[in-house]
Q: What sequence folds into this?
């Protein structure tokens, strides 16, 4: 009996150890998420010497403790900025593990860009995106992982009252832009559509399997550019919001049209309030947070008019 009890105790100790490790991982993930929010907000408080307003919303899928949605704002050595918004395949620990690998690739490649800048005094955006894409794919291949990441890289350059955006899209949703003048909406741009001269070019999603299937074309990420003006707002969002299905399961997804409706209806409120209204609208549509099937992340940045 003593031997059996001892064996049971050993198993119990192993289980307790695993639970502690899991709890530590959850705490680490939550800490990183909060640090991301603080970092993004902090950098936008002195964005090219201007104070931008930001709203950030993030909710894990029902029953999930870890997430694969990821965003980061990085100040580059030339004084310009890179905003990264990504959606990792799957849920839970596998998705979070892939997220960590993507973050590692970004950290390594941005560090290399800083070293190159010391010599060349320029940031080659094509090279940086290609380097991150290659490094992440190499890490995933080394881990024998078939998971993948959809990533949108946005390089931001300021010129007076203009903000030039250079997008490199690896199979991610483009943002929605609200064009405003003196707080009045002048137009809505869904950059996922061909409209008003805009062409939403995309590269392949980041995946070892896709690399194998597409060969040399895998590393091609065609850039496309759009100009924001002071007064405009831009919303980045994950597909967990767009694809949130109605409570009656009639195949009626929340869709981008409902996103734009929220943005226009509440456009005079602060970005954080607008994001909260967006999430409230999604939960009304699906019948409550318990019906959320995917992680949902939204980042709304307001470029106020500077008088």
A:
């Amino acid at each position: 009996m003593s031997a059996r009890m001892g064996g049971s105790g050993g198993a119990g100790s192993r289980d307790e150890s695993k639970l502690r490790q899991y709890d530590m991982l959850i705490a680490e993930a939550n800490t990183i998420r909060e640090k991301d929010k603080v970092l993004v907000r902090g950098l936008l408080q002195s964005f090219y010497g201007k104070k931008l307003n930001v709203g950030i919303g993030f909710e894990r899928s029902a029953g999930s403790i870890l997430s694969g949605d990821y965003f980061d704002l990085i100040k580059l050595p030339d004084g310009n900025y890179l905003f990264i918004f990504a959606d990792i395949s799957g849920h839970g620990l596998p998705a979070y593990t892939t997220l960590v690998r993507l973050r590692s690739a970004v950290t390594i490649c941005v560090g290399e860009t800083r070293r190159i800048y010391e010599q060349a005094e320029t940031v080659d955006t094509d090279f940086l995106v290609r380097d991150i894409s290659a490094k992440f794919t190499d890490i995933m291949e080394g881990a024998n992982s078939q998971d993948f990441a959809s990533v949108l890289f946005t390089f931001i350059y300021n010129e007076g009252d203009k903000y030039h955006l250079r997008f490199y899209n690896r199979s991610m949703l483009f943002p929605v832009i609200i064009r405003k003048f003196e707080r009045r909406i002048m137009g809505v741009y869904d950059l996922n559509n061909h409209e008003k001269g805009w062409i939403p070019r995309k590269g392949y999603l980041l995946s070892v399997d896709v690399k194998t299937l597409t060969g040399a074309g895998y590393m091609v990420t065609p850039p496309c550019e759009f100009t924001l003006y002071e007064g405009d707002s831009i919303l980045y969002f994950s597909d967990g919001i767009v694809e949130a299905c109605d409570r009656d399961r009639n195949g009626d997804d929340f869709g981008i049209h409902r996103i734009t409706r929220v943005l226009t209806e509440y456009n005079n409120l602060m970005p954080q309030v607008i994001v909260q209204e967006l999430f409230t609208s999604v939960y009304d549509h699906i019948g409550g947070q318990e019906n959320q099937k995917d992680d949902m992340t939204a980042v709304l940045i307001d470029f106020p008019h500077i008088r």
